[in-house]
C-alpha cells in the first residue's frame, strides 16, 4: 500500500513523498513531488495498479514495458535534484545537450550497458575532452543511472566500475629541488 509522507525542507516548505514496496522485488521506493495533490494522485494510482509505477506498465503500442532513453533519464535526474548549487543545473544541462543527447541519448536505459559507457568515454577522449571534464560528465551519467536504479528502470548501474582517465594535478608534477646553499669553509 502506497503511503504519503510529508517532510520539512531546509527552506521551511513542506515536501510530500510517496512510498511503496515493489511487489516483485519487495524493495521499497520513494518519490518526492511538488504538491500534496500530485502525491495523493500517485499514491492512488499505485494502490489501484498493484504498486506498479506507470513506467513499468506495458506500452499499448508495443506490449513492452516503456523505459526512457538515456537523454530522457538524465533530464529527469536533473529535474529531480532537490538542492543543486548555483549554476549546477546549467552545467548539467550543457553536458546533456553537448555530450549525451547526440551520442548515447537515444539508447533506451534498459539497453544501455558497460560497452556503451566505455565507447562513450573513448569518444569523449578522442574529441579532446580533458580528463577532469570526462570525470564530471561520467559523474552526471552515473548519478542519473543511480536514479534509474531507484526508479526501477534498470537493475544495475552500467557506469559503476568503469576505468576513467587519470587526472594530473599541478602538485603531482616533478619539481626540481632547489640547489643547496654551499657554505664556504671556515
TrEMBL record:
Keywords: DNA-binding
Domain Core-binding (CB) positions: 68-149
Segments passing through the bilayer: none
Cleavable signal peptide: none
InterPro entries, per the entry: CB, DNA_brk_join_enz, Integrase_recombinase_N
UniProt protein name: Core-binding (CB) domain-containing protein
